[in-house]
TrEMBL record:
<feature type="domain" description="ABC transporter">
    <location>
        <begin position="4"/>
        <end position="235"/>
    </location>
</feature>
<dbReference type="InterPro" id="IPR015855">
    <property type="entry name" value="ABC_transpr_MalK-like"/>
</dbReference>
<keyword id="KW-0547">Nucleotide-binding</keyword>
<dbReference type="GO" id="GO:0016887">
    <property type="term" value="F:ATP hydrolysis activity"/>
</dbReference>
<keyword id="KW-0472">Membrane</keyword>
<dbReference type="InterPro" id="IPR047641">
    <property type="entry name" value="ABC_transpr_MalK/UgpC-like"/>
</dbReference>
<dbReference type="InterPro" id="IPR017871">
    <property type="entry name" value="ABC_transporter-like_CS"/>
</dbReference>
<keyword id="KW-0762">Sugar transport</keyword>
<keyword id="KW-1003">Cell membrane</keyword>
<dbReference type="Pfam" id="PF08402">
    <property type="entry name" value="TOBE_2"/>
</dbReference>
<dbReference type="GO" id="GO:0008643">
    <property type="term" value="P:carbohydrate transport"/>
</dbReference>
<dbReference type="InterPro" id="IPR012340">
    <property type="entry name" value="NA-bd_OB-fold"/>
</dbReference>
<dbReference type="GO" id="GO:0015794">
    <property type="term" value="P:glycerol-3-phosphate transmembrane transport"/>
</dbReference>
<dbReference type="InterPro" id="IPR008995">
    <property type="entry name" value="Mo/tungstate-bd_C_term_dom"/>
</dbReference>
<dbReference type="InterPro" id="IPR003439">
    <property type="entry name" value="ABC_transporter-like_ATP-bd"/>
</dbReference>
<dbReference type="InterPro" id="IPR027417">
    <property type="entry name" value="P-loop_NTPase"/>
</dbReference>
<dbReference type="InterPro" id="IPR013611">
    <property type="entry name" value="Transp-assoc_OB_typ2"/>
</dbReference>
Length: 362
């Protein structure tokens, strides 16, 4: 069991490119941290630095309070699960799983016992004699997990482990990973660019952007109170709608003239009319039944309808504006392309951001 502390961790590659700018993070014992962010934000760099596969340019990495910056990967007691599984093709499942123990000089009988115990834990007991090429993608991923578990490391690192699997298997495996991680209680850091995977797996989410941490928190906290426009747009699917608006006291006015109650009234004594970026999640827009429009609504024309079964995504353009919004409505509501609709935003769930800095204002 282990805690991890990242203190102003930075990475500058030999070509002079700085991929991480002073990352601070404390990870509790047994916690499952998921790191998300767009391609190139530094997720893999961070994970590889934790593993010891990439040197640390500046700052400190500590495991259980002990500085490990200069320890070799093998000395860090960390196991990594990769997306390409990295299994030895000429070895059986049992030998793949027991390889690290063999290298460590663990006697054969004990090795066998540990491999069998782990195989039972993850449902591989009937496949121990197979070679990797005789396994399905999901089974190979399970062997890669088993190989990490059998080592009984202090920390698990997962680098997009499910990205080679089909959608259904991904869902199944992510439930299994969460269950196993909780059962074993091993501190884990999991990197993905799939935000649904991130939301469902994480105890806490770390959202990265451009080599920096934008926000850290529980999935629901990041969903309900994103600290920046970037986080607001990254967490939640489909993404939050953003509209230009002006705020005067506690009234927001949209370019179409619609007025909404602002979630933030501004500084005391402020009189100016200020531009803000208004965020409305698709699930917080509802269709107003005909004849019931009492203001505080958006008049739109439907451009595209995506039925998902339980829900329908309605892509619509604000009347007289260029802005497109997406609304997630109940799947049984009949909506067709070309329809004119009135949408009402849930004013208790609005978000406002500074249009320049992107910081949350309320
Ligand atoms: P992805 O989701 O696409 O894997 P990522 O968030 O994991 O992206 P990294 O692989 O950590 O991103 O890369 C972060 C940045 O560092 C990128 O701009 C990348 O081009 C750069 N980078 C990565 N490795 C090196 C290297 N060896 N030398 C120079 N720059 C590098």
């Amino acid at each position: 069991m282990a805690t991890l502390r990242l203190d102003a961790l930075s990475k500058t590659y030999p070509n002079g490119f700085t991929a991480l700018h002073g990352v601070d993070l404390e990870i509790a014992d047994g916690e499952l941290i998921v790191v998300v962010g767009p391609s190139g934000c530094g997720k893999s760099t961070l994970l590889r630095m934790l593993a010891g596969l990439e040197s640390i340019s500046d700052g400190e990495l500590a495991i259980d309070g002990r500085r490990v910056n200069d320890l070799e990967p093998a000395e860090r007691d960390i196991a990594m699960v990769f997306q390409n599984y990295a299994l030895y093709p000429h070895m059986s499942v049992a030998d793949n799983m027991g390889y690290a123990l063999k290298n460590r000089g663990v006697p054969k009988a004990e090795r066998r016992r540990k491999v069998e115990e782990t195989a039972r834990l993850i449902g591989l007991e009937d496949l121990l004699d197979r070679r990797p090429k005789q396994l399905s993608g999901g089974q190979r991923q399970r062997v890669a997990m088993g190989r990490a578990i059998v080592r009984e490391p202090k920390v698990f690192l997962f680098d997009e482990p499910l990205s080679n699997l089909d959608a259904k298997l991904r869902v199944q495996m992510r439930i299994e990973i969460r269950r196993l991680q909780k059962r074993l209680g091993v501190t884990s850091v999991y990197v993905t660019h799939d935000q649904v995977e991130a939301m469902t797996l994480a105890d806490r989410l770390v959202v990265m952007n451009g080599g920096r941490i934008e926000q850290v928190g529980t999935p629901m906290h990041l969903y309900e109170r994103p600290a920046t426009r970037f986080v607001a747009g990254f967490i939640g699917s489909p993404a939050m709608n953003f509209l230009d608006a002006r705020r005067s006291g506690d009234v927001l006015t949209l370019p179409c003239g619609t007025q909404l109650a602002s979630p933030w009234p501004g500084e005391a004594g402020e009189t100016r009319d200020t531009p803000v970026c208004l965020g409305i999640r698709p699930e917080h827009l509802a269709i107003v039944p005909e004849g019931q429009n009492g203001g505080g609504t958006l008049a739109v024309r439907v451009e595209l309808v995506e039925p998902l079964g339980a829900d329908t995504l309605v892509h619509a353009r604000l009347d007289g504006q260029d802005d497109l919004v997406v609304a997630r409505i109940d799947g049984i509501q009949p909506v067709a392309e070309g329809d004119s609709l009135i949408l009402r935003p849930d004013t208790d769930r609005l978000h406002i951001f500074d249009p320049d800095s992107g910081q949350r204002l309320d």
